[in-house]
Amino acid sequence: MSKLNQLKTLLKSHGIWSKKHLGQNFLIDEKALNKIIKAADLKKSDNVIEVGPGTGFLTERLIEKVKHVTSVELDKDMVKILEEQFKFTENLEIVNSDILNLRTKDYGLRTKQYKVVANIPYYITSPLLKHFLQSDNRPSSIVVLVQKEVAEKIVGKTGKSVITIETQLFGCPEIIDIIPSSSFYPAPKVDSAILKIEVFDKPLVSEDRIKDFLRIVKFGFSQKRKKLSNSLSAGIHMKSAEVREILIKADIDPDIRAEDLEIGNWERLMKVLSTNK
Q1: Average pLDDT along the chain
Q2: What is the pLDDT of residue 47?
Q3: Is pLDDT at 21 greater than 70 in this prediction?
Q4: Rounded to whole angstroms, what are the CA distances from 36 to 81, 165, 175, 205, 267?
Q5: Element (H, E) at 139
Q6: How far apart are CA 277 and CA 270, in angstroms?
Q7: Would strands 115-119 and 141-147 be described as parallel, antiparallel, or unpaired?
Q8: Domain residue ranges in the chain
Q9: 27: β partners
Q10: Taking a C-beta distance cutoff of 8 angstroms, is the pair 220, 247 a contact?
Q11: pLDDT tens digits for 69-93?
């Protein structure tokens, strides 16, 4: 039986359907599922957190590969399907909750070391990455299926935004493959991408400076069409001329826009700002 027929049978037998407000687009492409698993580079000793497992097509592959899987599902109807599908599975814990409301110590992990592998709803991409990357207990890697346009922004392939810097501060992102909308049911309006983030042992700035670093980045992007010197001036309450001097000291063109800066530029800017205090 094809994944599409299997999905329809499961949903019909439980009298439920895809919920648009939860961003439910079920991945039914076997090759895409296998690519996600391959990208995650799973070992038998691994612990995995899966977000939004739905009917469990990715879950069934994960439990075969690793020591323990914690699948966090918001939809109670999907939880019923999962509990029925995996009632005899010993290395799976199903948590009915909003992942963004959980702390890492609430996941039921057997160890502090874990990986995130998931086909997530598009609308929680940015909050989810923040949730894990800015937590006290970060995963060693993240492999998620996200909107293609967002993935390209995160890796810096297209115009950068706050999420680009927020991600690259904590890890090295790469696009593994593009997954067409036809691989889902119901099919979304846009294509997706398998995004892999190898999380650094330590972020690029010290832990005690992360909050200030991200605050400066958000100021820089607050007025995207304006020059960086003007955007920062409004955010940090300094005269534009003073900000221009700081940017020049950081070897950054004061007439540049935030979207044209690389992560290294922001690092240099923070160093100069910290010495100017």
Answers
A1: 89
A2: 93
A3: no
A4: 22, 24, 11, 30, 32
A5: none
A6: 11
A7: parallel
A8: 3-199, 207-276
A9: 184
A10: no
A11: 999 999 999 999 999 999 999 999 9
Residue 135: count other Cβ atoms within 10 Å of its Cβ: 13
Instruction: Give the number of other CB atoms < 10 A from CB of residue 61.
Output: 19
Nearest to 213 by CA among 154, 162, 156, 155: 162
Fold designation for 207-276: Helicase, Ruva Protein; domain 3 (1.10.8)
The Cα 210–Cα 132 span in angstroms is 14
pTM score, whole prediction: 0.91
Distance CA 107, CA 209 (A): 27
Structure confidence at residue 226 as a pLDDT band (50, 70, 90): confident
How many CB atoms sit inside 10 A of residue 70's CB? 21
Number of residues that make up the chain: 277
pLDDT digits (tens, 9 = 90+) for 6-16: 878 777 777 77
How many Å apart are CA 67 and CA 218, to the nearest integer? Answer: 39
Cα–Cα distance between 246 and 7 in angstroms, integer?
57
* 3-199: CATH number: 3.40.50.150
The pair of three-digit structure tokens given for residue 160, joined into one six-digit string: 């950068």
Q: Which residue has the tokens 């937590």?
A: 135
Q: Where are the beta strands (DSSP E) in the chain?
A: 26-27, 47-51, 68-73, 92-96, 115-119, 141-147, 171-179, 184-185, 192-199
pLDDT digits (tens, 9 = 90+) for 180-214: 999 998 888 999 999 999 999 999 998 998 999 99
Q: Are 125 and 22 in contact (CB under 8 A)?
A: no
The contacts of residue 240 (CB under 8 Å, 6+ apart) are 229, 230, 233
Q: Which amino acid is at 217?
A: V
In the numeric block, which tokens belong to residue 8?
């329809």
Six-digit token string for 224: 């995207």
* Token pair in block for residue 46: 């691994």
State the Cα–Cα distance between residues 158 and 149, nearest whole angstrom: 8
